[in-house]
C-alpha cells in the first residue's frame, strides 16, 4: 500500500510544476536499520515518481561510508537534496507531516536554485565568509 | 538560506527519532533552531530575525545555554 494518499500525490504534483531543473534525493539507510529507514526510502521513491525531474539514489551508511562522510551524514535515515549542486540541504529522520512539506519545498528550491527569501536577506547571506550550520529540530505534528 | 549561500548548510531533524541528539541540544519545544552550536531559539521567527540570528552566530556573540 502506498504511503502517500491520492490527495497528497495531487498536491505534490501541483508543487512539482515549479520544478525547472533536475533534483536528486540521496537516501542514506541501513540494511538492518529501523523500520523508519525503510519507510523513508519508500516515501522518497513515491515522491520522485511524481515527476520526471527528480531522481533518487539509496546508499548505505556503512557500505558507502566515504560518500556519507563527504555529505556530512552520520546517522540514518538521512536525505540529501541536491540540484545543480549540493546546496547543503539535509533531512534526518522520516520527513513526515510538516517535514514532508519542507522536503517538497526543499526539492523545489534546489531545482530552481532560487531561494524564497527577500533580496535583502539574500544579499546578507551572499556576504557570509565563514560556514553556517543551521539545525532545525521539528516533529511531524 | 542554504541555497542562497554556499556557506550555509541546513539540517532538518526529526526530534523524536533522535532523542540523544535532541537532548544534547536541550530541545524542549519545536521548532528549535540551533546555529553553529552558538545561537539558538525556539519557535518560528520572521525572516529578518532569523537572519539576525545567523549573523550573530558568525560574528560572535550569542551563547548556547
What does this structure look like?
The complex is a heterodimer of chains A (141) and B (65). Chain A is an alpha+beta fold and 141 residues long. Chain A has one domain (6-126): Glutaredoxin, CATH 3.40.30. Chain A is 38% helix and 21% strand. Chain A is built from five helices and five strands, in the order αβαβαββααβ. Chain B is built from two helices and three strands, in the order E-H-E-E-H. At the A-B interface, strand 4, helix 4, helix 5 and strand 5 of A face strand 1, strand 2 and helix 2 of B.
Give a quick set of tags describing it.
heterodimer, A: 141 residues, alpha+beta, Glutaredoxin, 4-stranded mixed beta sheet, 5 helices, globular, B: 65 residues, two-stranded antiparallel sheet, 23% strand
Layout of helices and strands, plus pairs?
The complex is a heterodimer of chains A (141) and B (65).
Chain A lengths: L5 H10 L7 E7 L5 H14 L5 E7 L4 H7 L6 E5 L6 E4 L5 H15 L6 H8 L5 E7 L3
Chain B lengths: L7 E7 L4 H6 L7 E4 L3 E4 L4 H12 L7
Number of domains of chain A: 1
What percent of residues of chain A are in strands?
Answer: 15-25%
Radius of gyration of chain B: 12 Å
As laid out across the biggest beta sheet of chain B, the strand order is 2-3
Strand order of the largest sheet of chain A: 2-1-3-4
Total helix count of chain B? 2
Portion of residues within helices of chain B: 25-40%
Quick overview:
The complex is a heterodimer of chains A (141) and B (65). Chain A has 141 residues and is of the alpha+beta class.
Amino acid at each position: 500500500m502506498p504511503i502517500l494518499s491520492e490527495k497528497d500525490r495531487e498536491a505534490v504534483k501541483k508543487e512539482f510544476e515549479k520544478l525547472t531543473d533536475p533534483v536528486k534525493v540521496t537516501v542514506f539507510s541501513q540494511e538492518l536499520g529501523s523500520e523508519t529507514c525503510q519507510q523513508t526510502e519508500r516515501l522518497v521513491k513515491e515522491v520522485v515518481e511524481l515527476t520526471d525531474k527528480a531522481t533518487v539514489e539509496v546508499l548505505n551508511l556503512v557500505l558507502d561510508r566515504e560518500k556519507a562522510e563527504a555529505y556530512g551524514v552520520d546517522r540514518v535515515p538521512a536525505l540529501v537534496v541536491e540540484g545543480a549542486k549540493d546546496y547543503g540541504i539535509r533531512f534526518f529522520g522520516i520527513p513526515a507531516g510538516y517535514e514532508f512539506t519542507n522536503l517538497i519545498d526543499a526539492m523545489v528550491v534546489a531545482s530552481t536554485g532560487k531561494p524564497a527569501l527577500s533580496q535583502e536577506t539574500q544579499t546578507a547571506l551572499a556576504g557570509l565568509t565563514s560556514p553556517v550550520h543551521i539545525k532545525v529540530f521539528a516533529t511531524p505534528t | 538560506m542554504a541555497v542562497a549561500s554556499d556557506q550555509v548548510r541546513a539540517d532538518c531533524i526529526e526530534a523524536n527519532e533522535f532523542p540523544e541528539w535532541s537532548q544534547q541540544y536541550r530541545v524542549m519545544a519545536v521548532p528549535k533552531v540551533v546555529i553553529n552550536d552558538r545561537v539558538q531559539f525556539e519557535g518560528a521567527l520572521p525572516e529578518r530575525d532569523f537572519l539576525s540570528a545567523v549573523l550573530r552566530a558568525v560574528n560572535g556573540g550569542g551563547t548556547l545555554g
